[in-house]
Structures are given as structure tokens and as C-alpha cells.
Amino acid sequence: MISNTSTGAGPSGAGRAGGGAPTREPTRAQLPEGAREVSVDQYLHLMLERDPWTPRPLTPEETVLIRHQCVRLLASYLRQEAYNKVLKTRIVKTAEERERHIADIREREGHAVKTYIAYQLIYWRTFRIHDLPMEILSNIIRYVVWSAPSPPIGIRWRLQLTWVSRYLRHAAISDPTLWNAVWFRDNPPFERSLAFVERSGISPLDLRINDTEARKFTDEEVCALLKALTPHLHHIRMLIILLDNWEPILSVLKWLSDYGKEADRSLTMERFEIHRTGNPYIWPGTVYRGARFDPVNHTVSLYSLFGGKYVSELKSFTMNGVYIDWANTPSLENLTTLDLRRIPLELCPSLPRFRQILCSSPMLTKLSLDGAGPASNPTGINNYPAINLPHLQTLVLANFTAPFSKSIVSHFTAPNVKDLTIMNFKGFNYGPFYEFMIGRFRKIKLLTLYTTNCPIDILPTVIKWLDSMPLLAYARLAALEHDILQAFLFDPETMEVHPSLTPEMRKTFGIVEDLAFTKLTAPSKEALEDKDRAPRLVNPRLNVLEVQNIRPEAFAKFIGARKLCGIPVKKTYMAKNMLADFHPDLLRYIRENIDGLMIVDMGAKTQEEEELLNEP
């Protein structure tokens, strides 16, 4: 018997593998004696072995015969599918009838899948692919290659296209746009990836070079690769580097600097990212754990980006765990993305240089600062006017002390930010920062809180800050506890917990009601005196959550409390690793309080994220 649950075999199952909502496992019926269950893929291979096909020119009679077979098989498949839909609606009364009914459904579904596979196996024999004009065939191949669900599969598909026939091989290799996106996933000396680069011709190149924990590239291996890429450097459009050790990182910076100083051809790079994935506490010339670190064969560790040459096309710049000669790097203008991470304060750009980058990038749409920013006294901000960034939509702030975080935000205004991330704001008094943020970004629709706490003395400030984002509809929550989750359960006008929460819920959630207020956070007298006033809740539009690394009990209490307050969470995307921590009763409680619970791999943007970011 064939099982059609392993992959999408026909139109009704197409595209299900690897995505979509979780589906229930169909009830198993006992297989007839002597029968065995196989997957669709296994059955397909069995059919190919039974009736192998060698491509060849068909006679007119063979073409007519195959087309008649296709019509017959397709009509049979459609009839079977229609009958199966009716069969599934049939009502059965006894357990014995139900068992026979399930067995009948499974058997007929198996027959339908077999029919569809038989149709697919012979349909393509009559397709005159060699009669297609080369430009149409090339376009078809592009659709195939760029629809790959992951980079490894994309690489495999490109290679397989060159193995089918000489005609397809010529069509694929003669199209440089099929080969210009190269992820160096093969081991040194990178023969396959460099072959892709050669096939790309002079088309713009998108390159990603990264090693792994299991296979870290040496400085010699990276230098050999850079030498092979030098003739193509002028037409690299995107360059993403992720390397563990300092020596190959410095070789990349030297390579770019030397080219900028010596080459006649200017660079056309639009996106540049360099990430050092190794120990963030090891820096050239510093002492770590009692030993001074000096990179081997590198007497110089400070380079200007692109040798100080201005690259007008550069729009996206990311530097993670690496530093450059900021004073002699004039290339950072007209950026749309500025992403600085894990750089010691003394190695960051000076405050005037940082402000110059922002001032010269009026179209900036993403600003990400993770433990890196302007190298200056965080309190010395009074003499600088705020820079207006009207197009900024995404702002990330992470791993800053409380005074420094307020200092950074004070240097710019961004009235149209939609996506805000606050990460690792813990261990200091961030009350002044949250107070400064009140009303500053009123158009935020997506908020990320990661490893962020809320001591009782700043809870009123956090409540007022959350209330100053009335459009918030989507929250990403990670590594949080009750102390900050309770801020979403208060009435921001009375500064009291929502009256719908029972005393038991307040106690189990750990809600604190004895708060100290300032002039800014004091409750509204009118709201307190108006007995007919309907209670409010912070962020009434918040209905989608994305959660990971949160204790199941804390999360369950939170979504239960929001529902009691009349603003239920409609959908939650939960990381797979969280599911193992939920016992059945708790998971059942969560499903009762959320309309849609999606178990997903975190990382990719969800449909709701895309829609909110694209809203005017």
C-alpha cells in the first residue's frame, strides 16, 4: 500500500512539505496481509526502475499514443479524487464500520496517487523542450533555480541542470545570472564555487564566504581564495564574510584596502558584511586570560575600508566583531542599512564620525547597534542637535549600559520607525532610558524584547512607554519573566492592574500593585474618579506573539491574563525547542486561549510581519 502523507504527490498535496500549518496524523488502518506501505518517493523510484525511459525522438504514432494515455490517466485521477471527497463525508456508526471505512479511504487514496504518478511519468515524454527558443528556456531555468527553498538545494539544482543533456547544459552555462550568487560551502580550494564564479562572467556577483565550527578556514586558504577572486572584485555586488579567526579577517580587510589603493577599476559593491564569529573578548594587541594576542603574520591590524576610496554604490554596511580605520574611511554615505555589533567603545567611530554617517544617509531604513556605537562620553549630548531620519523603519538597540542607550537615541529622531528591538537591557537602571522613549516612536507596530527585565521601581515608566506605542500589533518575546510581562496587564490611565484579573490570577502571576509614581507616570485623576469609565489595557491591538526561551508557566499565565482582560492573543509562533517543556495540561490550556498556535523554526519573517512592515 502506498502512503501519500510523506510528500505532496498530486495537486491536493503540492507544496505541503516543509511548511504550512501542522496537520494531524491520519488514523492508521491495518494493512492487508502481504502488503507493505511505501512512501511516494519510494513508489516513484520503483516505477522508474520498472519502466525506465531513455529520452529519444518520438514518432508521430508514439506521440499520439502518449497523449491519449495522458488524457485517460488524468481523467481517471480526477474521477478518483472526486469520489474520495464524497467518501470522506460518509457517516459511519460502529467501530467496525469505521475501521473498514478508514481502510477503504486509504486504499482509494493510494490508487489515486498511483494514477497521478503514472500520468506525471509519461506526460513529460511529449514535451518538446528542444524546440523552445533559448531565451524562453533560460527564463524557465531561472524560475527553477531561484525557487529553491534553501541555498544547498539551489546549488544542487544548478548542477543537476547541467547533467541532463547537452542542450540544457549549454542553456544553463551560457546564462551567467544562474551562477552569480555563490555561497562558498565547499572546502578549500573551493573548486566548485570558483567554477560558479567563472561561469558568472562579468555579471554582478553576490558572494558569501563563511567557515564553520567544524571546519575553520586558515589564513593561507583564505588568502588563496582572495587571490582567485581579485580579477572579479570590481563587479562584486554583495560580499558577506563570516570567519572565526582574526588572521583571515585581517587578510580580507587588507585585500579590500590594497585593491582600493592600487586598482584602476572602481568598486561597485552595494552590500558589505564582515562578521568575526570567534571569541568577542580577543582583540589584536590586547591581553586575554594573561596572554597577549598578536595575529600571526599580521603586523598591521588597522585598515581603512576600500583603501579610503569612496564607493558610491555602497548602501548596506555591517561590521560585527571587527574594526577599521574610521577616520580614513570616507565610503559610508547614502546608506540604507547601518549595522554595528560587538566592537569595543574605543574602537568604534568617534561621535562626530558617527553623526556624519547618519547625516549623510537620509534614506537610512535600518539602524542596528549591538554593543557598538559612537565612541564618546555618553552624557555629553547637549551640544548636538538631533538628526532627522524620516525613512528609518527598523531600529535595534542591544547590550548597552543605561546612560549610553539614552545617549545614542538622543542623537536622532525617527518618527516612522515600525520595528523596534531591545535586547539584553538588564542589570542596570534603565528607567531614564524608557522615560526618554515615551512618545518618541509612536508608529511602532513590531516590538522585540529579549533578555530584558523590569524592576518594580521602573514598572510605571515601562507601562507608560508601552502605552505610547498604540499601533503595536506584533511582539517577539524571548527570555522574559513575569516582571516585564505584567506591564502588558495594566490600565495605563489609572495605573492599576486591569480589573478583570481575579485576585488569584494576580497572585499567581506575581503582579505588584503598590507602585511609586513620578509626575510623568502618575495616574489620571479623571480616570480614577470616573466610575462609569470602561477599563483600558496597554497595547489593545497586540494580537500576535512570537515566543522562544520563555518558561511555559509564565507564558501560559500571560496569554490567559490577556484573554481575561478582553484582548486575547489570536496567534502565536512558538519555537520548536519550547514545545518539549510543555506538559499536556499546560499545552491544552494554551490552545484553549489562543486561536492559532504555530510551531515553527525561528528566523524567517512571518506573514504578519511582512504585512505590518509593508503597511503605509
UniProtKB/TrEMBL annotation:
Ranges where the record places region Disordered: 1-35
Gene3D superfamilies from the UniProt entry: Ribonuclease Inhibitor
Coiled coil: none
Biased composition (Gly residues): 10-21
Protein name per its UniProtKB record: F-box domain-containing protein
Provenance organism: Lentinula guzmanii
